[in-house]
């Protein structure tokens, strides 16, 4: 997928803009608070149908105005040109049209423009708590496998219900209990455990499968960005003793772990084991990157993870995603910045923001520079 141009009106401080993009590399330069992230946000709106920064869409409309519009012209990898329009009136909902025809709902637009965005906070992916890495695995797997998404949803629902039951039992434990109630509670727990074990095994299998595709892609990308830094290795970390491997065995193992943990869960009032506690281990050579890696390496690993996600989505959906990188070039040394740029230009259409043109260094390569000043966009050639 290639974004050919964007026409924007009243989108945050971008009052009126008409830009033709480079099919390879777009370097977006401007001082602080000039509108660089706003431009990425506008482009990313076409992936999700909403902002990646806020859930309150009214905030997107320029101060003092009543509506905004965005029009994107694109070219699919199969060579078909198309236009997408988004509109929003103050107090209303975002509406979407494709090739001039109004779409019934925003969900129709999701996935039409696959994109990957990396902002400074995303370094958390490699250095932060496990929840971010679970979300990464789940999001990637869900993009390419509908059965995984259904297992994940049912797992989460059953987990929520089991936790409600545990909380209730916690309260009841303080009162005098009827033995009949005890038996009925046990039967209810048995039922939730069976559901959790079955769907949980599906979740673990889906995450493992997606990691087997993401891991070699991430290793290759990382090696290009940081040659000689060691091999990047990703592996699934199961929080319970998982048995011999394979879905039936994970189901039995999870079922046993839930039963073993029942007393403890009842005291705590929530489920303390299962795929919702699992993690992805990231190693660089022989060491655990999260514990022993430098900040720079963690940042590159997180970028590699995001790009590997793009790669896997692209392979399975045969549509190349657009890559958006917000404010990371200024944090890379110039040799690394050049390698990242080379890697991007060779594979994706990318949009990279930076406060200074000099952050681009002396790297060779085509593309364009887009200057952003107080919401006004102007295009130059040297990039
Ligand atoms: N709804 C809005 N209307 C007008 N200006 C806005 C709106 N929302 C944000 N801004 C302005 O956009 C600017 C921030 O743009 P941003 O793209 O985040 O900057 P940066 O170039 O640092 O990435 C600020 O000056 C802010 O006041
Ligand atoms: Mg910004």
Reconstruct the topology from this structure.
Layout: E1 2-11, E2 14-20, E3 25-29, H1 36-48, E4 67-75, E5 81-89, E6 95-98, E7 101-102, E8 115-118, H2 124-127, H3 130-144, H4 146-174, H5 179-225, E9 232-237, H6 247-268, E10 279-284, E11 287-288, H7 289-292, H8 295-317, E12 322-325, H9 334-347, E13 350-354, E14 368-373, E15 376-380
Parallel strand pairs: 3-13, 3-14, 8-12, 12-13
Antiparallel strand pairs: 1-2, 1-4, 4-5, 5-6, 6-7, 9-10, 10-11, 14-15
Helix pairs in contact: 3-4, 3-5, 4-5, 4-6, 5-6, 5-8
The structure holds adenosine-5'-diphosphate and magnesium ion.
Describe the structure.
The chain has 383 residues and is an alpha/beta fold. Helices cover 45% and strands 22% of the residues. It has a 6-stranded antiparallel beta sheet with strand order 2-1-4-5-6-7, with helices on one face. The chain has a 6-stranded mixed beta sheet with strand order 8-12-13-3-14-15, sandwiched between helices. Strands 9-10-11 form a 3-stranded antiparallel beta sheet. β6 and β7 form a beta hairpin. α3 crosses α4 (146-174) and α5 crosses α8 (295-317). It is globular and about 75 Å long. The protein starts with a strand and ends with a strand. The mean pLDDT is 92. Bound molecules: adenosine-5'-diphosphate and magnesium ion.
Poorly predicted parts? none
| Number of helical stretches of at least 4 residues | 9
Categorize the overall geometry: globular
How far apart the termini lie comes to 21 Å
Q: Assign the CATH class of the largest domain.
A: Alpha Beta
**What do the pLDDT scores average to?**
92
Strand content: 15-25%
C-alpha Rg (nearest Å)? 24 Å
Total discrete domains: 2
CATH T-level topology of the largest domain: Rossmann fold
Helix/strand order, N-terminal first:
EEEHEEEEEHHHHEHEEHHEHEEE
The biggest sheet amounts to: 6 strands, antiparallel
Kindly report the spatial arrangement of strands forming the biggest sheet: 2-1-4-5-6-7
Query: What is the CATH H-level superfamily of the largest domain?
Result: P-loop containing nucleotide triphosphate hydrolases
* CATH architecture name of the largest domain: 3-Layer(aba) Sandwich
Helix content: 40-55%
């Amino acid at each position: 997928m290639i974004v050919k141009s964007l026409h924007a009106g009243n989108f945050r401080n971008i009052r009126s803009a008409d830009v033709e993009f480079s099919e390879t590399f777009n370097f977006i330069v401007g001082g602080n608070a000039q509108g660089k992230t706003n431009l990425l946000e506008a482009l990313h709106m076409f992936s999700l149908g909403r902002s990646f920064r806020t859930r309150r869409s009214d905030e997107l409309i320029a101060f003092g105005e009543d509506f905004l519009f965005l029009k994107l012209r694109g070219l699919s990898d199969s060579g078909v040109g198309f236009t997408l329009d988004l509109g929003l009136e103050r107090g209303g909902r975002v509406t979407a049209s494709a090739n001039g025809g109004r779409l019934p709902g925003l969900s129709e637009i999701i996935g039409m423009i696959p994109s990957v965005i990396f902002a400074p906070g995303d370094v958390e992916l490699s250095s932060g708590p496990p929840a971010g890495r679970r979300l990464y695995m789940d999001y990637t797997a869900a993009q390419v496998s509908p059965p995984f998404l259904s297992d994940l949803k049912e797992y989460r629902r059953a987990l929520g219900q089991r936790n409600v039951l545990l909380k209730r039992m916690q309260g009841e434990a303080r009162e005098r209990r009827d033995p009949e109630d005890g038996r009925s509670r046990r039967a209810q727990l048995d039922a939730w455990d069976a559901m959790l074990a079955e769907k949980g095994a599906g979740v673990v299998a889906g995450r493992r499968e997606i990691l087997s595709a993401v891991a070699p892609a991430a290793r290759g990308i990382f090696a290009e960005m940081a040659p000689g830094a060691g091999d990047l290795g990703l592996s699934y970390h199961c929080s319970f003793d998982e048995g011999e491997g394979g879905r039936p065995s994970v189901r039995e193992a999870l079922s046993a772990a839930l039963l073993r943990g029942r007393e403890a869960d009842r005291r705590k009032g929530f489920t303390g084991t299962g795929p919702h506690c699992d993690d992805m281990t990231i190693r660089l050579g022989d060491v655990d990157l999260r514990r022993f890696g430098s900040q720079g390496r963690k940042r590159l690993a997180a970028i590699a993870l995001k790009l590997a996600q793009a790669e896997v989505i692209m392979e399975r959906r045969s549509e190349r995603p657009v890559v958006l990188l917000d404010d990371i070039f200024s944090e890379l040394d110039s040799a690394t910045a050049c390698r990242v740029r080379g890697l991007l230009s060779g594979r994706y259409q990318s949009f990279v923001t930076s406060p200074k043109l000099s952050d681009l260094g002396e790297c060779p390569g085509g593309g364009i520079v887009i200057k952003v000043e107080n919401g006004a966009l102007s295009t130059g050639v040297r990039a």
